[in-house]
Inverse folding.
């Protein structure tokens, strides 16, 4: 079962980004550290090479396909496996996509992001009032 989460931000530390999501119902923060160096853009892209998310957005528009959502469906061996769900008329298709490209696309087209419930439990931590007070007040 999938639960909707809200993308908060991402922070780059030592060339490794961590993305932060919040599951409102359970008050759970889910940090997603992306350590796959092949998935990172550590250089300035040339204008002739647009990001994959921008290309995917234009392609779906040209084909009359609607991007429904992004689903993080599996966490295994420190990797997050992600689908972009698209709709064409009555057909709905899940397309396996890299985590970074899927989240970039979701932000670009303002589509909802869903995490499999087990991933929220396994990778997230509950945010409490005491935790916030300790972080703010020391």
């Amino acid at each position: 079962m999938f639960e909707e989460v809200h993308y908060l931000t991402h922070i780059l530390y030592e060339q490794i980004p961590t993305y932060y999501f919040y599951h409102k119902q359970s008050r759970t923060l889910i940090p997603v550290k992306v350590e796959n160096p092949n998935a990172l853009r550590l250089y300035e892209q040339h204008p002739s090479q647009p990001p994959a998310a921008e290309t995917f957005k234009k392609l779906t528009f040209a084909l009359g396909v609607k991007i429904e959502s992004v689903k993080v469906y599996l966490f295994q061996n420190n990797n997050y496996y992600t689908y972009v769900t698209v709709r064409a008329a009555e057909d709905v298709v899940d397309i396996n996509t890299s985590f970074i490209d899927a989240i970039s696309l979701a932000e670009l087209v303002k589509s909802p992001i869903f995490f499999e419930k087990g991933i929220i439990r396994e990778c997230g931590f509950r945010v409490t009032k005491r935790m916030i007070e300790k972080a703010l007040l020391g």
